[in-house]
């Protein structure tokens, strides 16, 4: 196993210490373990299974839990089912074999052992019957009528790692031999005894390639049985021996290890605290594909009670009554153990359901920053999973209810509306909602029907509540950052299951998460208000200039605040010309917005008092100032200067320069659109010493200049030319004679992906 020697070994065993494993099954676990040890991926593990499990004397299935189907059956399993083509649905396979429960009912149900294994749950040993009649692939055996039904013992457990690409489970069928006249009872008793014996099975792995064959992995049951934890790894397991350990048993184990063969024995070992226990130990060698010995896998069980029982029964052969009482005691112990296991499983299922609800609540509530949507999501989480109906109240800083949300499993919207309009504004001090808000603690009313007159302030609200059903009420406060933001009122309409302390704990946890999400919405809205104020102060109000019409549009990509580095400006310069600016500072946050404010001020100053008004000269001066003053890292800009007509009928004269910015567009009054891409230049902040050039054109009457930032034309998977072409198409499709505002609306009508800021300005020259 050259490539696998350095891989962590703690994943090569099925960690199910409570699985029922006999001698044949222990060998099977070892074989399956070897497959996983030899495979570098889950896919190769599933391919290696047939070679390892084919000749195992017990029937073995491999189940793909994702597909719910049998994907592999060894020779013994094929003999049970006949010629059934794989893969096949798990229940179809059971029907082909003729499997039933002990009462004769088919196993094709979610409570059957095969279905449980297909769901990823362990089956720690369950008895089933196999009918001796005809099979799915042909007539019955010649002696089918004379042969009684067979009794099988089923064990199943997950085989693959939970985080792997495959989700496999292993199922073992072990036939129980028939007895005498009381065979059925004897078989069931044998199964119960096997279940008791196998309740604490430990797994260990040693590495014979290392000096002294040390332990390299032990499972939690080993630590629980022996008292040795991680300190056992790296040592030879002889530390379990003691003064009364049988030397002959030790010699037999050593001989088997030297000969690289399997061995099973029972010997006296000692725990870490010095107490002795009888240990039934089965050791099997594991070989890689080249036949090299890579591991020994040990399966050991604390059989102290069994050994002690055997000795006691040997001493009590003469006392039949005492033996019978011993058997009754063992049966009662098994039944209590089964009851305890069922209660533990129920508790685990409830805890798993609670964790799933909390995980869903967290992901659901943080997925929105809209308060109304958040309240609606919260009500859906509560009904019907926690209650028959829910009523949520939010309060302001003065304790007055400012918003509500409600839901009933059967609708009843009119009754909920009565509570929202007539009840919440006059909450009695005795109402659970008011008490919960006032004390910031949960309030539980298990028999609310006896207090109905004290809970509502009017007859209409009382009748509405009675129609909704309110046998049991639970109010929990929504507290976040030491402030009570409201309360959740949960109601159950029937007394079969009133609220208990577990429900209170669950509702409190949900309310805390909801309150924190609501407080985050409140903080976001406050930040949004601040950002909106800042943005309005940075972006100008377009001035009214004779002879031109203008409009602008801005959308920020920032998720923290609606500000960014894109900007636009419209200037009425002292010489009567018109300046149009569009720019984009690198970044999408408040820092970019601050840099944008500085850059916009520099452009205004340079354009306002420029000795040479040429846009190329103005941008060159801005570049030098940006680098000299450290105003911004880099930015793209288009600056256009439009000179009014020199006389009646003369056109406007437009001169523009670009600093690495997308080209502006010119739309004529007739709807034709031209891309003004004749001039380009380096970004601001790259090289301020290089001169910049500009270009000039005459503007047709009522032509509109449109300048924009790259957020309007960028799309994932497409280049800028495609985005510009789409923008041109949208503008061409706009009706002739459309003004600047209509053109801006048409330009942003495409699907903006929100990854970049979008700024746009449109100026029509009349």
UniProtKB/TrEMBL annotation:
It comes from the Bacteria. Residues 315-354 form a coiled coil. The keyword Hydrolase applies. InterPro entries: Bact_Sigma-Reg (IPR052016), GAF (IPR003018), GAF-like_dom_sf (IPR029016), PAC (IPR001610), PAS (IPR000014), PAS-assoc_C (IPR000700), PAS-like_dom_sf (IPR035965), PPM-type-like_dom_sf (IPR036457). The keyword Hydrolase applies. Keywords: Coiled coil, Hydrolase. Residues 261-315 form the PAC domain. One of its GO terms (molecular function) is phosphatase activity. SUPFAM superfamilies: GAF domain-like, PP2C-like, PYP-like sensor domain (PAS domain). This is PAS domain S-box-containing protein. It comes from Geodermatophilus africanus.
């Amino acid at each position: 196993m050259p490539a696998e020697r350095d891989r962590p070994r703690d994943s090569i065993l099925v960690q199910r210490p409570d699985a029922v494993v006999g001698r044949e099954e222990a060998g099977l676990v070892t074989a399956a373990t070897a497959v996983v040890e030899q495979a570098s991926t889950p896919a190769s593990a599933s391919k290696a299974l047939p070679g390892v499990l084919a000749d195992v004397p017990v029937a073995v299935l491999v189940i793909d839990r994702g597909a719910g189907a049998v994907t592999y059956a060894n020779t013994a399993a094929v003999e049970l089912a006949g010629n059934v083509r794989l893969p096949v649905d798990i229940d179809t396979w059971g029907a082909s074999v003729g499997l039933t429960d002990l009462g004769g009912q088919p196993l094709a149900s979610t409570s059957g052992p095969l279905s449980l294994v297909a769901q990823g749950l362990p089956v720690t040993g369950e008895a089933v019957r196999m009918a001796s009649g005809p099979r799915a692939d042909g007539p019955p055996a010649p002696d089918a009528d004379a042969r009684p039904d067979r009794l099988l013992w089923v064990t199943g457990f997950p085989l693959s790692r939970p985080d792997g690409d495959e989700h496999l489970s292993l199922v073992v069928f072990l036939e129980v031999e028939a007895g005498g006249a009381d065979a059925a009872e004897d078989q069931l008793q044998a199964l119960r005894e096997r279940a008791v014996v196998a309740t604490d099975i430990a797994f260990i792995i040693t590495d014979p390639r290392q000096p002294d064959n040390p332990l390299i992995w032990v499972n939690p049951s080993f630590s629980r049985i022996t008292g040795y934890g991680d300190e056992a790894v790296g040592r030879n397991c002889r530390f379990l021996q003691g003064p009364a350990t049988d030397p002959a048993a030790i010699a037999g184990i050593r001989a088997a290890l030297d000969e690289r063969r399997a061995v099973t024995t029972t010997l006296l070992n000692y725990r870490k605290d010095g107490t002795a226990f009888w240990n039934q130990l089965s050791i099997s060698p594991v070989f890689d594909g080249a036949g090299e010995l890579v591991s020994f896998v040990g399966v050991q069980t604390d059989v102290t009670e069994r050994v002690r029982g055997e000795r006691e029964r040997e001493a009590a052969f003469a006392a039949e009554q005492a033996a019978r009482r011993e058997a009754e005691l063992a049966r009662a112990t098994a039944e209590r153990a089964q009851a305890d296991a069922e209660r533990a499983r129920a508790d685990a299922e409830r805890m798993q359901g609670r964790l799933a609800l909390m995980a869903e609540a967290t992901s659901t509530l943080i997925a929105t920053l809209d308060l109304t949507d958040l309240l609606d999501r919260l009500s859906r989480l509560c009904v019907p999973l926690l209650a028959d109906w829910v009523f949520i109240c939010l309060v302001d800083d003065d304790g007055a209810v400012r918003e509500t949300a409600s839901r009933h499993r059967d609708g009843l919207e009119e009754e909920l509306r009565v509570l929202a309009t007539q009840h919440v504004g006059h909450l009695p001090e005795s109402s659970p909602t008011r008490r919960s808000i006032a004390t910031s603690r949960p309030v539980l009313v298990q028999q609310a029907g006896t207090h109905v007159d004290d809970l509502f302030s009017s007859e209409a609200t009382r009748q509405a509540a009675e129609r909704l059903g309110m046998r049991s009420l639970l109010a929990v406060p929504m507290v976040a950052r030491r402030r009570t933001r409201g309360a959740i009122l949960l109601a159950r309409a029937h007394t079969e299951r009133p609220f208990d302390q577990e429900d209170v704990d669950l509702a409190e946890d949900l309310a805390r998460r909801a309150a924190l999400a609501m407080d985050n919405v409140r903080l976001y809205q406050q930040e949004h208000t601040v950002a909106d104020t800042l943005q309005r102060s940075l972006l100008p109000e377009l001035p009214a200039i004779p002879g031109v019409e203008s409009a602008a549009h801005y959308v920020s990509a920032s998720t923290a605040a609606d500000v960014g580095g894109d900007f636009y400006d419209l200037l009425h310069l002292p010489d009567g010309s018109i300046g149009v600016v569009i720019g984009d500072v690198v970044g999408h946050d408040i820092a970019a917005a601050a840099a944008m404010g500085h850059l916009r001020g520099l452009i205004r100053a340079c354009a306002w008092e420029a000795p040479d008004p040429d846009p190329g000269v103005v941008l060159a001066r801005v570049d030098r100032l940006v680098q000299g003053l450290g105003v911004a890292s880099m930015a793209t800009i288009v600056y256009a200067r439009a000179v009014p007509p020199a006389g009646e009928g003369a056109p406007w004269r437009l001169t523009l320069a670009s600093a690495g910015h997308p080209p502006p567009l010119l739309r004529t009054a007739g709807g034709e659109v031209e891309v003004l891409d004749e001039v380009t230049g380096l970004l601001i902040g790259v090289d301020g010493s290089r001169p910049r050039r500009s270009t000039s054109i005459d503007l047709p009457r009522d032509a509109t200049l449109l300048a924009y930032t790259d957020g309007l034309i960028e799309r994932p998977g497409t280049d800028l030319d495609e985005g510009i072409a789409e923008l041109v198409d949208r503008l061409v499709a706009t009706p002739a004679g459309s003004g600047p505002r209509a053109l801006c609306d048409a330009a942003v009508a495409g699907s903006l992906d929100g990854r970049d800021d979008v700024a746009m300005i449109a100026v029509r020259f009349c």
